[in-house]
Amino acid sequence: MHFPLMETSSSSWVFKFFFARLLIFFLSSSPCFSWRLHSSIINSTIEHQNHTFISEFRVVTRRLLNECPDPNPYLQIEVTPNSNLADEENVTVTISGVLVPDEHDWVAMISPSNSDISKCPLNEVLL
């Protein structure tokens, strides 16, 4: 005996099951969830939590902005103005050579007045 109504509900149930599994997979792999953040990002948030809005990060002392060697041969960072900085001055940072840019990518460049710029921070992560 053949029951077409039963086959339809059975295949509908299978479709809903696989659709739900697929939806859960895509939602759990989204970069928006904090459990997917790299540990260096989470640690940097903890490191800067005690700084107020106006802090030592606001002032960049007069010094040359050194380039940080990067293992990516296509990545280029340009800082303007490329001269000595005043006590308080804004700089423009242009990054080019990103192979797969995304509209949600962002860059933060922080230079506290008392920082040690003799080596690149987190260079080990980039390798």
What does this structure look like?
This protein is α+β, with helices and mostly antiparallel strands and 127 residues long. The protein has three helices and two strands. It has a two-stranded antiparallel sheet with strand order 1-2. The chain is elongated. The chain starts with a helix and ends with a helix.
Percent of residues in β-strands: 5-15%
Structural class: alpha+beta
Q: Rg to the nearest angstrom?
A: 25 Å
Globally, the shape reads elongated
How many structural domains can be distinguished in the coordinates? 2
Our count of helices gives 3
The averaged pLDDT comes out at 63
| Alpha carbon gap, first and last residue | 66 Å
Point out poorly predicted stretches: 52-63
Order of strands side by side in the largest beta sheet? 1-2
Number of β-strand runs: 2
Largest sheet: 2 strands, antiparallel
What sequence of helices (H) and strands (E) makes up the elements?
HHEEH
Helix content: 25-40%
Protein topology:
Blueprint: H1 4-28, H2 39-47, E1 76-80, E2 92-96, H3 123-126
Antiparallel strand pairs: 1-2
Provide a compact summary of the structure.
The chain is built from three helices and two strands; from the N terminus they run ααββα.
